[in-house]
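Page 42, continued from yesterday. The earlier attempt failed because a stray header line got pasted into the input along with the sequence. Redoing it now with the clean sequence only.
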Amino acid sequence: MPGTEHLARYKLFFLIFFLLPTAFAQSYPDKQVDFLLKKGIANIMEQSYDEAEKTFLTLDESFPNLPFGKLYLAAVLITKANDLAIPFENEKIEKYLDEAESIVDKSNNKKSLWTNYYLGMINGYRAYFASVQGKWFSTFTNGINAVNYFENCLKIDSSFSEALIAIGTYKYWKSVKAAWLPFFADEKIEGFKLLSKGIEKENYSYASGVVSLLWIYINQKKSPSAISLAEEVLKKYPNNRNFKWALARAYEDVNLSKAIEIHYELLASYASTKQANRINEVVLKHRIAQDYERQGENKKALLLCNEILSIKRFTSYEQQQLEERLDKVLALRNKVMSLENEK
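This time it went through. Structure tokens are written below.
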């Protein structure tokens, strides 16, 4: 069985591949379905999760024979949990996926483009949740099944952008995050080409493809390209935290002061939400402290480390998620204290 570090990398790969691309849909022929999908997706992009849930409930009630409503209700819950660093509503999400699969099973045309798309999404979500629970055999099998269904989409329609983005993202990050597995070939170049082709025209999949491409640019040490792309898409979604996280990370390679500024914007954004976000607070303050230390501003770094370490009464979930991070904060505090004492 792979070591803990490798499993963590593979889990991250599934987060990037299955969560981000499946938050959007290819244009659907029915105008009302198309309208509700477009509205719900905009709600997700604006991080208005309650409104998104209402929209997809309407979609589900209005079109009970389509799995879209169930799938996107699951997408809202997953996206919200990841954004706000809160526990997943596992039973509710799995119920939506089971119900969506039941609807697909009753379909009269099991070889259609949309049937393959639905099954690709369902298997993708199942793979992600298997990885969260450490069920690695299910993670691999569901993940491969998802890719096969998306590849079927391309056999039917080679321009189906959702499949291009999903497969392109999969091939690239699989090659990066799971390179330690001997049966996975290096497909980074092909993955990048497919993803780039998938976002050539702005459509429902464009924003999710951009998120994937941003992190690819960062992985490739092409931070100026990531900055340019992130700033372009933030003109349309100025408050979207997914884009701002990537933008801040890209700026860390070229302009630490700008990275710190954006990290503080993210911190303020989480502070304005209805519930406490202590996981995000700790992560962001730690990143800012690291940036200050790299700038030689040790007193500012020390202040933030002390703020983090003064937080008390973490929930068991927060403690579990932050255990390694808090160790790193303590190590950074000791380092900057030592540097200050040497002066």
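Notes: The chain has 16 helices and no strands.
Reminder to self: strip header lines before submitting.
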